[in-house]
Every structure is written in C-alpha cells, then in structure tokens.
Amino acid sequence: xxxxxxxxxxxxxxxxxxxxxxxxxxxxxxxxxxxxxxxxxxxxxxxxxxxxxxxxxxxxxxxxxxxxxxxxxxxxxxxxxxxxxxxxxxxxxxxxxxxxxxxxxxxxxxxxxxxxxxxxxxxxxxxxxxxxxxxxxxxxxxxxxxxxxxxxxxxxxxxxxxxxxxxxxxxxxxxxxxx
Length: 179
Prior knowledge:
Blueprint: H1 3-8, H2 24-51, H3 77-115, H4 126-143, H5 152-178
Helix pairs in contact: 3-4
C-alpha cells in the first residue's frame, strides 16, 4: 500500500463503502434506500425542518402558590386540602433532594477512593459532606418524628411546639444570666 492509499482509509483501516466489494443484496438495498428514503430525507431536511418553529423549552410543572395552613380558616376544607397537598409535594421534593445529595457524596467518595484508596474518608469530599449534613439536619427539623402518614396539620403543630420551646429556652437562659 502506498501513502495515498493510507490517506483514503477510514477508521479501523477499512476502505470507503464505495470502494468495498459488495454483494448483490447489499447493492439492491442501497438502491431501494436511494429511491425510497432519499426523497423523504430530503423533504424532511429542506422543507419540514426549515419551517418548524423553535422547540418549546421544557420546564418542570409549576404549581400556583396555595395558602399555607396558617392562612386557612378552620372550616375551609378546600384550603386545608390544598395546603396538605402542597405539604406532601414539598416533602417529596425535599427527600428527592436528599437522595441526590447523598448520591453526589457517595460518587465523590468512590471517585476519590479510585484515585487514591489510602486517603482517609474523613478528609475526602468535605464540601459534599457538609451540604448533605446540613440538608439532613434541616429535614430532621422539618419532618422528624412526623411519620409517613402525617399531614400538614401535624407539621404545623410540630413547628408551633418547636417555636414555643425555643422561646422558653431563651427565657430560661436570660433568667439564669440575670440570677
């Protein structure tokens, strides 16, 4: 083979398709593709794609802002139902975020262990570890001890009791400082 033959070779050393010896069946398939597929492809590229509008960007479904449970009247069951659905949707989102953060942290650990398996696990991926830890703390504060069948009223009562406890702790701290 001369130098000019090497320039015409495609990847893996195969000559172009037009220079290969082909069976009659392969030639017949190429002719049929030329007669049936070529006009359709030409029409799609030159007519359909030119006049097709720009694709509409996909965004996540946006839910309208519903009032929270503290804005609902006691006998307004529709408002309570909407607030409960919004709470359950937000809980699902929060736990999916926790799953994603946990996945990122584990992937970081695996990647760094593959690079240097003798590193201490406590020193690797500190940023991911801190973000995951903070998200877990926030989820525990918001959803801890509620259970899987809890509703928005249970979460509201938990929040109310936590705020009362924090206020009483602040009062105890101030009274112990003054005494």
